Structure to design on (196 residues):
């Protein structure tokens, strides 16, 4: 393993409400690019249906839709590239969950939101950028990271809608995603110890 460019280590929990929650307490907002443009896209698609396919009007309208979609993709890419740059500059070791995003995309309720959040692009971009930036990226098993108490290690079951982690064993009360990020950090540090 290469030596990281500094001793700063961070665990990162990716989410939908907040794009990233970091183990040091920082958060990165999720701009919901697609959601912002959804009305505009719906209108444009509705208009498209009114025209005869391949007609001049249809082609013009089709181009309008393509332009909106392209804008969303570019905004998302730029935003994530900025995040990746700040991560690789600030932290020497970056720890994510090894998420099965493909499997998560089979959830019809979350599919659109996960795609819009672009977790896959965020994680792979960080991995790609890390090497040239002198960083290490560690991927850890996501099992129980949001259910386990980051202070005492007990499992505290909670539904996805429950946003606060309240541990009945040690009394820790903390934002659910921050608790997960702290667990991700701990798991990453453990796996680094095994490697060294």
């Amino acid at each position: 393993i290469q030596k990281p460019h500094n001793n700063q280590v961070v665990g990162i929990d990716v989410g939908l409400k907040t794009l990233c929650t970091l183990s040091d307490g920082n958060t990165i907002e999720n701009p919901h690019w697609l959601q912002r443009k959804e009305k505009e896209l719906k209108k444009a698609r509705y208009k498209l249906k009114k025209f005869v396919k391949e007609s001049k009007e249809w082609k013009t309208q089709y181009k309008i839709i393509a332009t909106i979609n392209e804008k969303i993709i570019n905004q998302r890419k730029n935003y994530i590239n900025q995040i990746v740059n700040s991560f690789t500059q600030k932290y020497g070791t970056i720890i994510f969950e090894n998420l099965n995003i493909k499997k998560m995309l089979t959830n019809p309720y979350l599919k659109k939101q996960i795609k819009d959040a672009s977790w896959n692009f965020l994680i792979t971009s960080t991995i790609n950028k890390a090497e040239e930036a002198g960083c290490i990226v560690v991927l850890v098993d996501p099992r129980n990271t949001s259910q386990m108490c980051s202070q005492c290690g007990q499992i505290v079951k909670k539904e996805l809608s429950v946003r606060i982690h309240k541990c009945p064993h040690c009394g820790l009360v903390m934002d659910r995603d921050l608790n997960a990020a702290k667990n991700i950090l701990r798991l990453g540090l453990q796996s680094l110890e095994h490697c060294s």
